[in-house]
Design goal:
The chain is mainly alpha-helical. It is built from 14 helices and no strands. The chain has two domains: 238 residues; 118 residues, no CATH class. The longest helix is centred in the middle third of the chain and has 32 residues. It comes from Vallicoccus soli.
Length: 375
């Protein structure tokens, strides 16, 4: 079964590479090229660890387990190119994610130590290479070099994904979160491998299934999530995934703003286009989430404008006191989707302090404010 899964993944990765390769090299998109190189290294790793290939490779090279250093080197390269891709994307947003050269130096050092430890250590002709070399110093150095860089690369990718997703469009943000989830599984795989080697070095007898079956499930599932997340922004629109993700994103933001909106409309009832529903009723309303989010953002801002007048503003949190009653926080008269989402995020960040102020004010008799009528 495992051989069939590996074969399927190799075929799938080859198809992805064929589709992305032409775009990456014709458009000269450096971030897309880095992703293509990362996928190429992952595909090479899958081929190297395929039983039908590594048996032939050992025989042809005359070096037992030569797939091990080659396969782990391609994994390290895949992690490095993933870092480069995200560094380039974050730089496009005007941020400073750190130097590529620093990451490159870490990769070179790790590969050098890994290859040196493999050459210096024993090379038994066994299927479970990790278990065989795990008790000697060369084996510890070999796995230590691999684990150190992979942990660094995976954590770096997770942090960069989180950083970039904060301002990304919904479909891209979902793809970045899938990549981060895959990296979490990858980091768990690396930790499990290193823990197994350390346990054997200490004379313990850890369960082989943890190093074998469980580690394989973690690594393959993590790989699928990373590939799915990285390709989703490119192939998602073809299956209308972008519309589905946009609707889900709008619904999630609408729900997160419910408590603040409910507290505000109870004090400024005239802001609401429709009567307030209970929390359960609001959650059950699934129609037109994008318009509902737009209305919710507008209504919250309208209520804040009323409550920021001099006679009410003394109890509002400091960040929300600035500005006159006639000043709109952000121009949403002709909003784009990104404008509404950005404003929703700002309100979500301010919601805890606003809710504390509103509830503190509501001790005793709630304050109800009517909006002025025109004419």
């Amino acid at each position: 079964m495992r051989d069939g899964v590996l074969t399927g993944l190799v075929v799938g990765m080859a198809i992805v590479l064929a589709f992305l390769g032409r775009t990456a090299w014709q458009t000269r998109n450096q971030a897309l090229r880095a992703m293509w190189l990362s996928f190429s290294c992952l595909t090479a790793t899958l081929v190297l660890y395929h039983p039908d290939f590594y048996g032939w490779l050992d025989s042809a090279s005359g070096v037992p387990n030569v797939r091990e250093p080659l396969g782990r080197t391609t994994i390290l390269l895949a992690g490095y190119f993933s870092q480069v891709m995200l560094v380039l994307l974050v730089r496009e947003r005007g941020q400073r994610p750190g130097s590529v050269r620093r990451r490159q130096a870490a990769l070179v050092c790790s590969v050098a130590v890994l290859l040196g430890a493999f050459v210096a250590g024993p090379q038994p002709e066994v299927e479970n290479f990790t278990a065989a070399i795990g008790t000697g110093p060369a084996g510890l150095l070999y796995m230590g070099a691999f684990s150190a860089f992979m942990t660094y690369a995976l954590v770096d990718v997770i942090l960069l994904c989180r950083r970039y997703a904060q301002e990304a469009e919904p479909l891209l943000a979902l793809g970045l979160r899938l990549i981060a989830a895959g990296c979490v599984l990858g980091a768990t795989y690396v930790a499990l491998k290193m823990a197994y080697v350390l346990a054997r070095a200490l004379g313990l007898q850890p369960y082989a299934v943890l190093e074998g079956a469980v580690a394989h499930v973690l690594s393959l599932t993590g790989l699928v999530l990373v590939v799915l997340g990285a390709t989703l922004p490119y192939f998602g629109p073809a299956v209308s995934a972008d519309r589905a993700v946009a609707r889900l994103t709008a619904y999630a933001h609408t729900r997160r703003l419910y408590r603040l909106w409910y507290e505000l409309q109870s004090r400024v009832p005239d802001i609401a286009l429709e009567p307030a529903l209970s929390a359960l009723g609001d959650a059950a309303r699934l129609t037109d989430p994008e318009f509902r989010l737009y209305r919710r953002v507008i209504e919250i801002n309208d209520a804040l404008l009323v409550l920021r007048r001099p006679e009410h503003a003394e109890w509002l949190p400091d960040p929300l006191r600035s500005g006159s009653a006639d000043e709109q926080p952000d121009d949403l008269s002709h909003p784009s989707t990104s404008d509404v989402l950005e404003e929703a995020r700002k309100l979500e960040a301010a919601a805890p302090s606003l809710l504390r102020a509103l509830r503190g004010r509501s001790v005793g008799t709630p304050t109800t404010v009517r909006m002025p009528r025109s004419g």
